[in-house]
Design brief:
The structure is a single chain. A seven-stranded mixed beta sheet has the order 8-10-7-11-9-12-13, sandwiched between helices. The radius of gyration is 20 Å and the shape is globular. By secondary structure, it is of the alpha+beta class. It has two domains: 150 residues, PurM-like, N-terminal domain (60s Ribosomal Protein L30, Chain: A); 169 residues, Phosphoribosyl-aminoimidazole Synthetase, Chain A, domain 2 (Alpha-Beta Complex). The N and C termini lie close together (12 Å). α2 packs parallel to α3 and α4 crosses α5. The protein has ten helices and 13 strands. The structure holds adenosine-5'-diphosphate and magnesium ion. The site of magnesium ion (MG) has 6 residues, from β8.
Length: 344
């Protein structure tokens, strides 16, 4: 779609819209330490702790398709995407509220499945369901979750703390969730064309699981604690690596250079992207929904991450004037562009 045929919201994008709507709001309470602009809001409380608060909404047809998303997985995923924002602040989630918009035609049994997934996630992440809201919806299922977490005041990682020469590090691997979605979409297309053909999902289990039931990286936060490590900045990867790098760069007033050959891409993701005619680097950079943690570390912490199989050092922070660069194996640099996850 060309710029002049796009509607207003499409032109400014999700972040432009949030900025447009919230620009005039100022924080007036001393307890509001951090408002809009990070993975969670930070609220001061007595003693050495702070409260963390975040909300994420999943909308049928935008974030999930019930033709291949089992409701139990949807429940689990809705909690994962929320608690991931608490881990992204180096915090621990403790409570959630769940609000539903649902058609009265929806079977109660199906909603119980959704809640079975929410319960499994509450147990996995050790969070308590403490409330919510229920209303009717005429345009599909809506699951909106808010999460409350806690962190030590001195231990919170904001998006804004990266300094020049810091290492840029990512947990796990990238692109798997996006490729899982492409496989599900391919098989849905085949099935729609001929309902007698069974979907071919065997062998793609790991990719599909990453899409349908992602696990937020609570284990990474425990590893940081064991290593006595605090990231200088951190964000979780929901919209895609490139987009999140740009958020860290903007908040930290720096730039990043990353190396394409350092991007962690699983063997299965490379094979599947080849099969689908996709570029595995593009999937890793712009796929999104990885729910890995992207963070920066002071150079003095290099030894903690060098040869650590849980992490990949993908680049480093530079002066803002350098711009965000992607350096390929021939040492040529291109400007990093973010596709992001386009809702609009
Ligand atoms: P994340 O991807 O980590 O969930 P988002 O990109 O959704 O974060 O949101 C970025 C920031 O904008 C967050 O601080 C979030 O609380 C805030 N935000 C998003 N939507 C709204 C809104 N409609 N009104 C006010 N703040 C919003
Ligand atoms: Mg986030």
């Amino acid at each position: 779609m060309s710029e002049n045929t796009k509607n207003e919201i499409e032109s400014i994008g999700e972040f432009g819209l949030i900025d447009e709507l919230t620009r005039e709001f100022k924080l007036t309470n001393d307890s509001s330490v951090k408002g809009i602009g990070d993975d969670c809001a930070v609220i001061s409380s007595e003693g050495e702790h702070c409260k963390l608060l975040s909300a994420d909404m999943l909308v049928e047809g935008v974030h999930f398709n019930l033709s291949y998303m089992p409701l139990k997985s949807l429940g689990f995923k809705a909690v994962s995407v929320n608690v991931s924002d608490v881990y992204a602040m180096n915090g621990k989630p403790e409570q959630i509220t769940v609000s539903l918009g649902v058609s009265s035609k929806f079977p109660v049994e199906a909603l119980k499945e959704l809640y079975a997934g929410i319960k499994a996630a509450c147990e996995f992440y050790s969070v308590d369901l403490i409330g919510g809201d229920t209303t009717s919806s005429y345009s599909g299922l809506i699951v909106s979750i808010s999460v409350l977490g806690v962190a030590d005041k001195t231990n919170i990682s904001f998006r804004s703390g990266a300094k020049e020469n810091d290492l840029l590090i990512v947990s796990g691997d990238l692109g798997s969730s996006y490729l899982g979605l492409q496989i599900l979409e391919r098989e849905k297309g085949v099935f729609n064309a001929n309902p007698n053909i069974q979907p071919k999902l065997d062998g793609y289990d790991e990719l599909i699981k990453r899409q349908l039931q992602p696990i937020a990286r609570k284990d990474v936060i425990s590893m940081f604690e064991e290593m006595s490590f605090k990231p200088t900045s951190m964000i979780d990867i929901s919209d895609g690596l490139a987009s999140e790098i740009m958020h860290l760069a903007k908040s930290s007033e720096c730039s990043f250079s990353i190396y394409s050959d350092k991007l962690p891409i699983a063997e299965k993701s490379i094979l599947t992207s080849e099969e689908l005619g996709l570029d595995p680097f593009v999937c890793a950079l712009n796929g999104g929904e990885d729910y890995e943690l992207l963070f920066t570390a002071d150079q003095k912490d290099f030894e903690k991450f060098k040869n650590n199989p849980n992490f990949s050092i993908i680049g480093f922070a530079t002066d803002k004037s350098n711009g965000n660069l992607l350096i390929d194996k021939n040492d040529s640099a291109v400007t990093l562009n973010a596709q992001g996850w386009r809702h609009f």
